[in-house]
């Protein structure tokens, strides 16, 4: 047999071997990779985050002074751009007219939109809009009102499961009146809050 014929047969055999396996020496497409290749090629991003926050809260209409605020949040990621949130927020603020405490409790749910994906910047900016309940205890408090919280903030993963961030909240309230006894004009409960938060992502 000639040298040319031998080389032609060898090349044909190599082509058949490559076509059968999808990659010479590798497993067929769709099968478990060999031991020198990882089983999981991409680690999925955390889908659930539980966070706590601390900061300050004030009232737009002067219902009370600036006071400490705290927050607990659960976030569920639906896509790299969209997530849903459930929030509890509380605060204690001193009323200037009575020197007594006004205690706020808020529960709300919202939809979060990530302005940039987490892999596009050093920190991830986002906005959130929601709806929920807000109530106040103390002199001139209102037990029930409707709130429509709006937030803007940034966050990032510090490790694969630890997340840090900060956000500015504006919480308009409806059907609310925080006027103290004897006041001739109603006092609104619209508030703002600046919170730093951290927690775990799973």
- Could you tell me the number of beta strands? 10
Helix percentage? under 10%
Residue stretches low in confidence (pLDDT < 50, at least 5 long) are 17-27
Overall mean confidence score, pLDDT: 86
Largest sheet: 8 strands, antiparallel, barrel
Lateral strand order in the biggest sheet: 1-2-3-4-5-7-8-10
Shape: elongated
- The number of helical runs is 1
Reading the helices and strands in chain order gives: HEEEEEEEEEE
Q: What fraction of residues sit in β-strands?
A: over 45%
- Helix/strand-derived category reads mainly beta
Distance between the termini: 65 Å
Kindly provide the radius of gyration, computed on alpha-carbon positions and rounded to a whole number of angstroms: 29 Å
Main traits of this protein?
202 residues; mainly beta; elongated
Task: Explain this structure.
With 202 residues, the protein is mainly beta. The chain has 1 helix and 10 strands, in the order H-E-E-E-E-E-E-E-E-E-E. The protein has one helix at 3-21, and strands at 48-59, 67-77, 82-94, 101-114, 124-137, 145-147, 150-157, 162-171, 173-174, 191-201. The longest helix is centred in the N-terminal third of the chain and has 19 residues, at 3-21. The radius of gyration is 29 Å and the shape is elongated. The relative contact order is 0.17.
Secondary structure: elements and pairs:
Layout: H1 3-21, E1 48-59, E2 67-77, E3 82-94, E4 101-114, E5 124-137, E6 145-147, E7 150-157, E8 162-171, E9 173-174, E10 191-201
Antiparallel strand pairs: 1-2, 1-10, 2-3, 3-4, 4-5, 5-6, 5-7, 6-9, 7-8, 8-10
């Amino acid at each position: 047999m000639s040298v040319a014929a031998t080389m032609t047969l060898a090349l044909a055999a190599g082509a058949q071997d490559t076509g059968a396996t999808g990659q010479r020496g590798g497993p067929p497409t769709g099968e478990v990779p060999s031991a020198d290749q990882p089983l999981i090629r991409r680690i999925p991003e955390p889908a659930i985050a539980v966070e706590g926050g601390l900061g300050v809260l004030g009232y737009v209409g002067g219902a009370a002074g600036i006071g400490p605020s705290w927050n607990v949040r659960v976030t569920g990621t639906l896509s790299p751009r969209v997530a849903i949130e459930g929030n509890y927020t509380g605060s204690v603020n001193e009323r200037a007219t009575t020197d007594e405490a006004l205690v706020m409790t808020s529960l709300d749910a919202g939809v979060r939109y990530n302005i940039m994906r987490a892999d596009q910047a050093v920190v991830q900016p986002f906005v959130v809009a929601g709806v929920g309940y807000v109530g106040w205890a103390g002199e001139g408090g209102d037990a029930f009102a409707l709130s429509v919280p709006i937030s803007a903030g940034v966050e990032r993963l510090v490790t694969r499961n630890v997340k840090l961030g900060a956000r500015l909240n504006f919480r308009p309230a409806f059907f609310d009146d925080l006027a103290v006894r004897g006041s001739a004009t109603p006092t609104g409960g619209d508030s703002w809050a600046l919170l730093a938060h951290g927690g775990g992502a799973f």
